[in-house]
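[Automated response] Your request has been received and processed.

Submitted sequence:
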Amino acid sequence: MRRDIVTSVIGIVVLTVLLGLVYPLVITGVSQVAFPGNANGQKVYVNGKLVGSKIIGQSFKTVVLEKNGKPKEEEKEVVTEADPKYFQSRPSATEGGAYNAAASTFSNRGPNDKATEEADAENIKEYLELNKPYDPGLATAKIPVDAVSTSGSNLDPEISPANARIQAHRIAAKRQLSVSVVDGLVSKYTDARGLGFSGEPGVNVLELNLALDRLTGGTA
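Generated structure:
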């Protein structure tokens, strides 16, 4: 029995050292050498300041202020509105606020769920109010699905090229640029399908907005 106990203790110690220390350190070392960008979250810096991650979506909205200058709140949440100078990310409904990277999750609600229908209707309304003044031909039937529904993670860093090109009309007007120039940036920051066949092309919103700021002298 003593021999079994000693063997068990040795096994626990050896496995703890190998799998709890050696293996993680080796994997960390390999990842830092082979693909440091991915291993560190593909962080994006501007003038030495961290502004986001290429692979984690974020909000490009501003806080709505009351007449007294304080943030407006509804149901104990700060009210925000889309900043028209920036491309807007895909809708996000993470707990604690949109694009809360510490609360990545998905909803189990089906497409016929009342809450889903209400959220979709509100997203459609906001999208039309934001973009239709700059694209008069825009109608509900032309709105891409990624402008209405959330992603599985609620942290999607990309939008569809169709979504971006609709928003390009607003961006061009607000930034005093031609639509062709904005479309050119959209094309530049559009990622192709993975390995040429997996998934759909996507436009990285953070990189696109940073490019706009560099072009027009704005700030993200």
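Summary generated for your ticket: The helical segments are 2-34, 36-39, 114-131, 161-175, 179-188, 205-216. The mean pLDDT is 87.
If you did not submit this request, please reply to this message.
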